[in-house]
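Q: Here's a chain of 175 amino acids. Please give me its 3D structure as tokens.
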Amino acid sequence: MARVRVYPHNDLMNLAHYQRETIRNKVAADEEDAVALDCLSCLVSLAFSVEAIVNLVGTKRVKGWKERKPYYVKISQVCSVAGVEFDKSVGVYKSLWELKELRDSIAHGKPIEFTTDAKTRDELRVQMQCPWDSSLTPDYVETAYETVKTFERMLFENCKIAVGETVTSAVMAGK
């Protein structure tokens, strides 16, 4: 018999790290091909990571944890247990909320249709931008990645969760 612990935040953060390295390598090689798509992939991975981290900490430290509650309720509960207040308008929390909004705009994507009087291709290109396009830069990705890692470390430290308790693993138990 084995005790198995599967923690999705590990895979999601590893995916985000891989994507960030891909972006860094392309930037270093002055290669622009699909960098915006790499940025989008990384940001979506980071946004899912935050929720997975929140669910992990909630499961381990919030009495009566309900994974299906709204995001704001869950992240506020986990932050409270960590001894901090979640305020989506300031600092790290603002950045985390922006990731959540980006994720929602993609995951719950709705068609946007309108008529424009754009006269040039450049004007039309500007009008056709997606709400998340301004975030698709290597600099934004770097900042977002560091923000998520800072948040993760803060939660684990403040909630007294050792890194070993956050790793997907299996341990043989009994005979």
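Q: Can you summarize the key feature?
A: The two ends are 7 Å apart (CA to CA).
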